[in-house]
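anyone seen this seq b4? input:
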Amino acid sequence: MTDSFTALVAEDVDGKPKANFKRLTTADLPDHDVLVDVAYSTVNYKDGLACTGKGKIARKLPMVLGIDLAGTVADSRAPTWQPGDRVIVNGWGLSETEWGGYSQKMRVKPEWLVRLPEGLSLQEAMAIGTAGYTAMLAVLALEEHGVKPGGRQVLVTGASGGVGSVAIAVLAKLGYDVVAATGRPETHDYLTALGATDFVDRATLAEKGPPMQKERWGGVVDAVGGQTLATALAQTARHGSVASCGLAGGADLPGSVFPFILRGVTLLGIDSVMCPQPRRAQAWQRLATDLDRGILASITEGVHPLSKVPNLCEAIMANQVRGRVVIDVNG
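predicted toks r here
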């Protein structure tokens, strides 16, 4: 088959999803209007959940995994996109209800596509990926709710992960005083290079404490959830804001209403999956201008072939991936 290509596909094996590499053809792909020659993807925490089976991500099988892709339009039935256009897709149910980016070709809906911003390469876009795009959505939300540079410190949890790394780099470049929450002292040099000025041991945030604590943070980017989010809310200063964008530490919220009704703290939910298209384009344009390329290179652990995705997914679930990894689907 001359048009065959490789994809990482989760299929039902004894009632459980199991991921394996398969050869597909364009005839196997969904009947969407835009065919993309995929160049790069990446590995996010959500990809780790899907690939290892430790989270119920894929809602139907078989499923091509991968929540991100960047590539070039090869064919289009939509007038808004032409062959040769360089594009990014994040979210929109990829790896859940729609086939995803761990494939050398994919058909997608035209409304999912974001045009690659001027100055960014396809590889850099996937070094950013959903994690970095989510971080930028969180920064935008904090800005719009009055969290300004020069005020109180901003806390970033899950600091050495993909979301945290990009959030620190962007906030620091914009002039915020950023405190990184991490449980790994060996990452302090890395986080300082990104722009963090101080550190909090993540274990202290994970301990249950009073529902109202000393005011510390003007704003928070939280990718952890659970008790960490509850503690961050309890420590957020009057009229501060907390952007919640992850659940690496748990999906529950064991806190109280006191920060909201006694300090006017705002909890901002960050939806990266179904985020409206204008907001996506805004986030990607801001990433092109507000994320230093040298910093992005330092955040990026490396470029790996598609064959390494299962191992990398196991590693990200074991908290062994620092920053971002890029997947060269044709490598």
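Residues 122-144 form the longest helix (23 residues). The chain has two domains: 5-116+299-328, 130-269. kinda curious what u guys think
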